C-alpha cells in the first residue's frame, strides 16, 4: 500500500472514530470531488453479453419501426422488477451502532424513490450487523482472504438478489463499488461463482452521512446502476470510442466534478450533446444527480432480465414474506404488473 493511501485509510479510521450517528444535520455540500468508484472495468464476457442485449434491442427497434427500441423479448418498462435486498452493516468496534436502522431504511427509500420511475423496486428483506475492525474497511481490508471468506459466509440469496454491504471504515477517498452482471451462461446457478456478487458502500455516503456533498444516498444509486449493467457515462475517456454503449447518452471524455455552475459542461465539443452532468452514472455530486436516460433504463431492464432474473428466490426469509401463492400471483416471480 502506498503511503498516501495508507494515510487516507488511517485518517478515515480516525474520522469514523468519532462515532457519529445518523442522521446528521444537512451538510454544506462543499466537497468538490466524488470519491472513487472502484467498480472494476467490464471484462470480455461483459462485452460479449452486452452485444446479445444490444441485438435484442436492435431487433425490437426494427419490429417496432421506431428509433427508440422497446424490448419485446423482455417487455421493457411495462413491468416492475422487484429486487429482494439484503443489507450487511460492517462496523469497527469503536463505531459499533454508527449505522442505524433508520439510516438503512432511508437509504432503501432513496433507492426506491430514484428507481421506481424506471420500474425497479427494492424490497429490504433483512439487515445483518457485524463488528470487525479488519472487515470494516470492506474490500480494502489488508487481508483479502479473510474478506473473501466473509463474503462466502454472508452473501445471501440468488443472483437476482441484491446484497449491499455498508462499511464504517471504508477509505475516505473511495465511495463504493459493485459487481456488474456476469454474462457467462448459467452463472446464476453456480453459488461458488457468485459469492462476491453485490455492492459495497462507504457508510459516510448514506443519507445524512458525513461526506459533505455526497451524503444523499446517491452513491448507492450509482453503484446499483453498475450492478444492473450500466457503465460510466465517461467510459473509455474517449470521444470517439463506444463509450457506455447506450445510444442516448452523449459522448463524454471526462467525469464531472461537483456540479458545473451554469449547468453546462462539454468534454466532447465535436459530438452531439453536452456532458450528461445530471446522470447518475457520471461523477457529479449528490445534489447534481437527477436521472437515468430512457435507454439506460431499457439497458438495466434487459441486463437484469437476461443475466440475473433467472434465479428464482428460494431464500427462507423471502419465502416467508412472499408465500408461494403470492409469488405466483406476482407473475411467477420477480415481477409485478404495471397497471
Ligand atoms: Zn461507478
Structure, described:
- With 339 residues, this protein is of the alpha/beta class.
- The protein has a single domain, classed as Collagenase (Catalytic Domain) (3-Layer(aba) Sandwich).
- The chain is built from eight helices and seven strands, in the order H-E-H-E-H-E-H-E-E-E-H-H-H-H-E.
- Strands 1, 2, 3, 4, 5, 6 and 7 form a seven-stranded mixed β-sheet that branches.
- Helix 3 (101-115) links the parallel strand 2 (79-91) and strand 3 (120-131).
- The relative contact order is 0.18.
- Residues 37, 39, 222, 226, 232 line the site of zinc ion.
Write the layout of secondary structure elements.
Elements: H1 3-16, E1 36-37, H2 44-64, E2 79-91, H3 101-115, E3 120-131, H4 144-154, E4 162-167, E5 174-178, E6 199-202, H5 218-227, H6 294-308, H7 316-321, H8 324-329, E7 335-337
Parallel strand pairs: 1-5, 2-3, 2-4, 4-6
Antiparallel strand pairs: 2-7, 5-6
This protein binds zinc ion.
Organism: Zalerion maritima
Function: Secreted metalloproteinase that allows assimilation of proteinaceous substrates.
InterPro entries: MetalloPept_cat_dom_sf, Peptidase_M43
Q: Low-confidence parts lasting 5 or more residues at pLDDT below 50?
A: 1-32, 65-75, 325-339
Rg is: 20 Å
* Tally of DSSP helical segments: 8
Number of domains: 1
Question: How can the largest sheet be summarized?
Answer: 7 strands, mixed
Bound compounds, please? zinc ion
What is the residue-mean pLDDT, rounded to a whole number? 80
- DSSP helix fraction: 25-40%
| Shape estimate | globular
Amino acid at each position: 500500500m502506498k503511503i498516501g493511501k495508507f494515510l487516507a485509510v488511517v485518517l478515515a479510521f480516525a474520522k469514523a472514530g468519532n462515532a457519529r450517528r445518523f442522521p446528521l444535520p444537512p451538510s454544506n455540500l462543499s466537497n468538490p470531488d466524488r470519491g472513487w468508484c472502484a467498480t472494476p472495468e467490464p471484462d470480455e464476457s461483459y462485452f460479449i453479453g452486452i452485444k446479445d442485449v444490444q441485438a435484442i434491442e436492435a431487433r425490437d427497434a426494427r419490429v417496432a419501426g421506431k428509433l427508440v427500441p422497446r424490448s419485446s423479448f423482455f417487455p421493457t418498462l411495462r413491468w416492475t422488477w422487484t429486487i429482494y435486498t439484503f443489507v450487511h452493516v460492517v462496523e469497527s468496534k469503536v463505531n459499533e451502532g454508527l449505522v442505524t436502522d433508520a439510516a438503512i431504511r432511508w437509504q432503501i427509500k432513496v433507492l426506491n424513490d430514484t428507481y421506481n420511475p424506471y420500474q425497479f423496486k427494492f424490497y429490504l428483506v433483512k439487515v445483518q450487523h457485524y463488528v470487525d475492525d479488519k472487515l470494516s474497511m470492506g474490500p480494502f481490508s489488508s487481508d483479502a482472504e479473510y474478506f473473501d471468506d466473509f463474503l462466502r459466509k454472508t452473501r445471501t440469496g440468488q443472483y437476482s438478489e441484491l446484497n449491499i454491504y455498508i462499511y464504517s471504515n471504508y477509505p475516505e477517498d473511495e465511495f463504493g463499488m459493485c459487481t456488474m452482471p456476469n454474462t457467462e451462461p448459467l452463472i446464476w446457478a453456480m453459488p461458488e461463482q457468485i459469492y462476491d456478487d453485490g455492492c459495497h458502500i462507504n457508510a459516510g455516503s448514506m443519507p445524512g452521512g458525513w461526506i459533505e456533498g455526497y451524503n444523499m444516498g446517491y452513491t448507492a444509486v450509482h453503484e446499483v446502476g453498475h450492478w444492473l449493467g450500466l457503465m460510466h457515462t465517461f467510459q473509455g475517456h474517449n470521444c470517439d470510442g463506444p463509450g457506455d454503449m447506450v445510444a442516448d447518452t452523449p459522448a463524454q471524455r471526462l467525469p464531472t466534478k461537483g456540479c458545473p455552475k451554469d449547468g453546462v459542461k462539454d468534454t466532447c465539443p465535436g459530438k452531439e450533446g453536452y456532458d450528461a452532468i445530471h446522470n447518475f452514472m457520471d461523477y457529479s455530486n449528490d445534489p447534481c444527480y437527477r436521472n437515468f436516460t430512457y435507454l439506460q433504463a431499457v439497458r438495466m431492464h434487459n441486463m437484469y432480465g437476461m443475466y440475473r432474473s433467472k434465479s428464482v428466490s428460494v431464500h427462507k426469509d423471502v419465502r416467508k414474506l412472499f408465500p408461494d401463492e403470492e409469488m405466483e400471483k406476482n407473475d411467477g416471480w420477480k415481477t409485478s404488473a404495471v397497471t
